[in-house]
Records
---
Amino acid sequence: MAENPSERDKDIDPGFLVCVREAKFILIFWVVQSTVMIGTFLLIGYNRTTDPFGYPLGLPSWYLFGGVIPAIVFFVALVYIVRRHFQEVEFK
Amino acid sequence: MKLEIVLPFAIYMVITVGVAIWARKAMAESVARGGSFMDEFFVAGRSVGPLILAFTFMATFASAGTFIGYPGLAYRNGLTVVMTGINQITMAYLTFALIGKRMAVIGHRTGALTFTEVLRRRFDHPLVSFGAAIAIIIFFIAFMIGQFAGAARILQTVSGVPYYVGVLLFGGVVAVTVVIGGFRAVAWTDFVQGAFMLLGLLMVFPAFVVFGGGFEKITTKLLTEDPGLVFGPGPKEWLPPSMLISFWILWVWLAVANPATAVRFLAAKNSKTIHQGLIIGSIMALIFYVPMFYMGAGTRTIFPGIAPDVAIPNIYMATLPIWFVGIALAAPFAAVMSTVDSLLLEMSGTIVRDIYQRYINPKASDVFLMRLAYAVAGGIGILVLVLAFQPPKLIANLVIYFGGGVVAAFAVPIIAALYWRWATTWGAIASIFGGFLTYILLDIYYKNPLKIMSYLWGVGASFVLLYVVSKLTKPSDKSTLDLYYGKPKGASAAAE
């Protein structure tokens, strides 16, 4: 009978554990960014006939505050995190 | 026919074929030095660096849906479509970080050449290969029809080239690209095509804003016509919050689950390639997806009452000097061709490598497999051409159908293969079939239950089936687990 995988944690590739850690991190990062963007859309972009912030730069405020700005802010944060905290792993 | 539009476009086509021929030469030299044809043809000898990886990933993901279909949907439903599409700025980083490195590691360790092979080597059973192949064939063909139709429709709109001539032209160039040089040709031409996409967008978007009278005028006109074109839930309440979240997950997870995009990581040279590719891909995503759908919605204020799928071609024609139109037009064409050639290559790989070579004729020679790969790619290409002669009503519908099917079939199994040691063969089989059958049946008989898109129910079924069946069935054997998750030494031994 095949053994239970949990009994063999000592045999796990350290590179695999790095990938698991980074995968968990990026999922959380994505959920946070998605929550910020969707939350802004629902908060100031739904069930309205006029803009609560008066169309900054001529755009609907949900587009600017929920789309463009978070896109740039999260991208900058992402670059910092990838450069500082993502680790190299051996492919072979 | 407008020569000043057709000529720059023809030059673009010649450049594409020229790059493919160049890639074929590089492939032949590598094979002559002792490289395997299959490795060279399907994953470019696993030698791809960050720039090419990011461009081929983005060019494969960005399709007629990005440049034609989804802007067409925005033309119809206004800026609310932006809410469902701008999430694609997160798609590149999520995919690179979540599956990129693991796919590359597994590729180097196991020699996997296709997405299906990554699944098949982890859950070794004919039903895994056949289930994946069926899902790939159904959804990829539907998607490719939309791609050819989109490209031919643009060409018809702007230059007067008949629709069927456009379909034949695109089919021909794509087939030549794939057959000439496999993955290397596709990746290299993707780079050229990705550059054309960026160039086209950077040219047309500022011209569009100026032509439309500025952001304020565009927004005001949309509001005057219908506030639903600017605010959710949109015209005829097409986008309740549940549908917004459904779309949000769909477009991002499509990149993760799409065999044609995921397979690109098998060609990555090292983990630095993945990290740098993640950043380059994210920059490209920002440039593609922040302005594109806004432009589709804004076109409604400039050209009211036209067919949605020709919104963007009309903007090209109206805003750019005539000689630039041909250059800018290369962007959507590039999106189409770079997507279809990747889909063809992946379909061919799945059928030749994961079904024919694995289960029908394991001793087939490289030469025979090469001819078979060409024949399969060519045969599918011809089938799609024939089906594309009858254009779909709205390209976005085919794109959404494809996206939903692929995510329902593959999102859960591929994550399980890469990360979950407790996943079993029968769990994976149940997950693949349960996911895409749930989606197909719901899509036919009871679309979007509780205003949640059908594919999410498919993903739910796929997840539950994977978990429950894996708990009830025998774990995978030690050699497989070592190969996928074990220390490199053990993995090497198992691979031998």
---
Amino acid sequence: MEVCPFEGITMEGGQVEFTDACRLCRVCIKACPTGAIWLEQSDAGPILERDKYKDVLIFAEQRQGRIQPVTYELIGKGLELARCLGQEVIVFLAGRDLKAQAHELLLYGVSRVYLYEHKALEHFRIEPYTSLIVDLVNDTLPNILLMGATPVGRSLAPRVAARLRTGLTADCTSLSVKENGDLVQTRPAFGGDVMAQIITPRHRPQMATVRHKVMASAPRLAEPKGEVKECAVDESKLKSGIAVLKFEPYQITTSISDAEIVVAGGRGVGRPEGLKLLEQLAVEVGGALGVTRPLVEQGWADYTMQIGMSGRTIRPRLYIGCGISGAIQHVAGMRGAEAIFAINSDPNAPIFDIAHYGLVGDMYEIVPHLIAMIREGDDPNGVFQLS
Amino acid sequence: MHFVVCIKQVPEGTEVEIDEEKGILKREGVESKLNVYDTYALEAAVALKEEFGGSVTVISMGPPQAEAVIRESYMLGADEGYLLSDRVFAGADTLATSYTLASAIRQLSDADIIFCGMQTTDGDTAQVGPGIAELLGLPHASYVKRLCTLEADAIILETDMGDGIESLKIELPCLLTVTNEINQPRLPSFRLKQGTKNRPVTIWDHQALVGAKQGYFGLDGSPTQVERIFPPPKSQEQVIWQGTPFELSQRMCAKLRELKYI
Ligand SMILES: Cc1cc2nc3c(=O)[nH]c(=O)nc-3n(C[C@H](O)[C@H](O)[C@H](O)COP(=O)(O)OP(=O)(O)OC[C@H]3O[C@@H](n4cnc5c(N)ncnc54)[C@H](O)[C@@H]3O)c2cc1C
Ligand SMILES: Nc1ncnc2c1ncn2[C@@H]1O[C@H](COP(=O)(O)O)[C@@H](O)[C@H]1O
């Protein structure tokens, strides 16, 4: 009974009863020592002909003609999965005037880029993009379809999955394949307190989204491999109930709730210039700047930057706290961060109890070095540099 | 106009503890509440109703006790509520959930705008809304952060695309998933609490959803399967570094690089 995460099992008069709280998560079945619990499941649907489905299809997301970096990360993972199965990576790319970008993608080891060019595809619109991808899937029968967990990917993937009637797993943190081609998808559940391993055993393609910076990018090769296949766009697929009126790019970095990396400053910052220093660090690591409540009360920072119980809850991949004591009200809003670095001059500060990496020292002495070192390491020929 | 809002009851807080020795989950005193993102969806619908007239219907799929969130929505201005509750619906992944909700919305037949939260705090997939839109064949927009103009047959709005704001005009009927920036949800009204005490909540089981395919509900209708649940990889190492500022920066920089943050 205590195995159940939902309190879905009760014992009545020596009889095990399942309550409505049961979510059929099957934890109990695996935990049952005598095999007394099982699940009756009608084997709905035809038997899957696994051999019919091959290759990993990647949705290459472009925004204003620029391929989004998550695409190269998906290709990196896709190549790894395809290699295990002796298969290939193919790419879907849609937009306007994208020949150069399509050829650029060939430098990352993919076998074929299916390119759809049309002025009506310039901006992402859900219906045409869904139709074109579904058509490509029906033509190529991929085993796996990967998309970035970006606003576009998170909008598109569930529609494609629903039309194809296949499974989709959001925000996977790890992906691997079994010998039979089944994709093992791992993602955090219950707000990150547990990990769930999910499979899509009877449907193809197996779909998953992955966030930016979770997987390593594919290396850029010296010579392109593969080919670009220009696909005719059927006008009837372009119908949409949506008109894009305007796009206004953000000038500054994103808000702390969405940011993958957050640099946070506390009262230890001492003076407003200290926040400028932390802002520089935030820019260097490509993150957003957050603060503790006292700094908002001082008027040094906007309320939208406050992390904690009465501010925003954040779950970034990386949190760097500087001059923050680690009061429970602050920690409540950031303990879900994947990696926590803390810089504090007091070795007994409670923040060190939850930090993965604690630096005991003065932030004014440490942070400037840190900024310089990160900058030095910048590789001008980095993989994200598009020619 | 008829506004439909999909709301879900979720566990309060997400603290689940893992018993390291036995490798099992512990969950103490699970309280339930309305998914916070759905309060923004509901507020958006109620505000439109107040300005332009019409009615607001809420729909939730869940166990019988999920009636509580429908009652709560009455205190927040919803006019009518449906609870889709049936053992057959249990074990649904996002596709089966979308299918069940879409079937119910189709049954209502006259929705002009369907609102969803941008995600739930337990499932946390953001997939159900777009899934419903697809199954109903409607256009949708995700991450709507502002409603600008409502016309007879279209709505103009702004969405957060991560890298900027996109203004869209969408034909009605349509589905919108909203962010927590779209409004400031009101507090439950005592007057409405009193006034809606006897308002019924309609319970629908799978038979009430005419024309829906039973194999598409719940576990059977879910292509994804949870194979295993396990504790997250031990929260890395926990170390405290001492040294000169230069040494400390070096270590931190090397670690950031090793972990691929930079
Ligand atoms: C109902 C309620 C709700 C609250 N909600 C929130 C909330 O949402 N968010 C929030 O943040 N707080 C919240 N608080 C406030 C919270 O209790 C703490 O007061 C606050 O988080 C402390 O902020 P701090 O760590 O920046 O400051 P302090 O606790 O003053 O800590 C400053 C730290 O900086 C260190 N330091 C000083 N100088 C340096 C230096 N040069 N280099 C490195 N380290 C240095 C010090 O050793 C100290 O540990 C709330 C409080 C209440 C009562
Ligand atoms: N069981 C459910 N009942 C009603 N609405 C739901 C349900 N599950 C999800 N939703 C809606 O879909 C949104 C996204 O949920 P999710 O895909 O789980 O993150 C929620 O904010 C709700 O509006």
